[in-house]
Amino acid sequence: MTDPLPIRPLSRPIDATVTIPGSKSITNRALILAALSRGESRIEGALYSDDTRHLATALRGLGIGVDEDEPRGVFRVGGTGGRIPIDAAELFIGNSGTAARFLTAFCALGRGTFRIDGVERMRRRPIRDLVQALNQLGIDVRADTGCPPVVVQANRFRGGRCTLKGEASSQYLSALLMVAPLSEDGVEIEIKGELASKPYVDITLRMMKQWGAKAESQDYRRFVLPGGQSYQARAYAVEPDASSASYFFAAAAVSGGRVRVSGLGADALQGDIKFAGVLGQMGCRVSYDADGIEVTGPAVLNGVDVDMNGISDTVMTLAAIAPFASSPTTIRNVANIRLKETDRLAALANELKRIGVQVEERADGLKIYPAKDILPAIIETYDDHRMAMSFAITGLRAPGIQIKDPGCVAKTFPDFFERLERLYS
């Protein structure tokens, strides 16, 4: 790919059935649960991307067997039942927040010293809330700056009670939930404040049950996990990534065309399928069945006012198509995305202004106004995969959009631009 990468506007409405790689969220949870299980698990339809490779490599660094078959989308994981075979490791996780949080809790099950670190941006992504919760559970964990590097000095995970702030990231809670059943005495987690991104916690709980663990959620305020449990190795099929699907649904919306994503049904684990419902509010026709979701764009998009806390990974997709709506779009309750790969609210505001769009940046969201003319521009991506993919959809309708550092999509969707190119035919 060239850098910057020009995006050609579509010459006609899309009419396509699209296949999407496996979910990053599900793949990384499956890797952790497989590693915690007894025996070999086979993860099928898995995503191979920077984030999942970092986690797989880190698990191998902990002495857990992870075999890769990328052409078939398969990981084979030799689970050790919650035992970490080695007593010291240096784990590099790039800019994968999921890997950083999951591994910090995972290493609490070991006996030894484990250090988790990443790229410079990862060293500015907070993890203090998780560290403090683990400290309350008797685990010696340190993150001197409140961000990685994290050092886990593990000896014994008895369990106990802890409180966890809910506003910043649901990944802290998911990290604790997955390891808690293997504690000796069980764990009770009390959530302080409003829990962010509840659908991702639902994914974690449903997958834990699929792998054989019991957990009780009391209205997302308190979680009770009996100790002394075990996970059972299994074959596990990863569903397509709903966040990645959002870009192709948005392409249908801005082109007035039709896109169907197969393999992502109405009963999918991922809350991000609700993004299709947001497009429905904007005037798209949306249909669901057991094996797919289909979106057909309208002649004119309507603006919406929407709380996106539960589907915050799709905020950028909506922001990128909002200028084409006939009325303003307001995105609310997503202050937590300021702590992602970049400050996503600030980055979106900057790039929308760069292409001539009026936008109001708020503490927890954005208000984006319709734009009669989109200015040609090179879009800064801030080493954030979702910036690149979202504004590529803007370029399907507005001429002159170029994407800087298009290779950053390797974090979650390495062949995104190749798949986008297929829409033209």
Brief summary of the model shown:
The model has no long low-confidence stretch (mean pLDDT 97). Strand 21 (359-362) and strand 22 form a beta hairpin.
Report on the architecture of this protein.
- With 425 residues, this protein is α/β, with parallel strands linked by helices.
- The protein is 29% helix and 25% strand.
- The chain has twelve helices and 24 strands.
- Strand 23, helix 11 (385-395) and strand 24 form a beta-alpha-beta unit.
- The radius of gyration is 21 Å and the shape is globular.
List keywords for this structure.
4-stranded mixed sheet, alpha/beta, 425 residues
**Which whole number gives the mean pLDDT?**
97
Any idea what the shape is?
Answer: globular
User: Low-confidence segments, ≥5 residues, pLDDT <50?
Assistant: none
Radius of gyration equals: 21 Å
End-to-end separation in angstroms reads 19 Å
> Percentage of helical residues?
25-40%
SSE-based structural type: alpha/beta
Strand content: 15-25%
How many strands? 24
Q: What is the helix tally?
A: 12
- Largest sheet properties: 5 strands, mixed
